[in-house]
């Protein structure tokens, strides 16, 4: 069994409350990375952790391994689907500071964030 990193409650609180958003989000997300798995629901993360992880992954824009296959799929979508995706892209990229939104979300859901690392039982 892999031993989990443990963090002090005061350190977690300082990250959530007093650390600049871009630094705090990156640090917090880095702490749950060892728990990420492809075999458990939500990749082994809590729902708030999973949601943040998805947005962080989306921001990085994963390069597809088979761009031609992706192009073929996208070409099959109708204008309504493409417009909906374009609107979602604008909402994400037009956010003044995505990390500010993410840290606010993590603050609102902090009871479910880094529970194993903080020693909080399920």
Please describe what this structure looks like:
The chain has 122 residues and is mainly alpha-helical. The protein has a domain at 9-65 and 96-118. It has seven helices and no strands. Helix 2 crosses helix 6. The mean pLDDT is 87.
Structure described in brief:
The chain is mostly helical and 122 residues long.
Describe the secondary-structure layout.
Elements: H1 9-18, H2 21-32, H3 47-60, H4 67-75, H5 79-93, H6 98-108, H7 115-118
Q: Biggest β-sheet, characterized?
A: none
- DSSP strand (E) fraction? under 5%
- CA-based shape: elongated
The average pLDDT is 87
Count of DSSP H/I helices: 7
Structural class: mainly alpha
* Total strand segments: 0
Uncertain runs with pLDDT below 50, 5 residues or more? none
DSSP helix fraction = 55-70%
Distance linking N and C termini: 17 Å
What letter string, H or E per element, gives the SSE order?
HHHHHHH
Radius of gyration: 17 Å
Give short descriptive properties of this protein.
single chain; mainly alpha; 61% helix; 7 helices; 122 residues
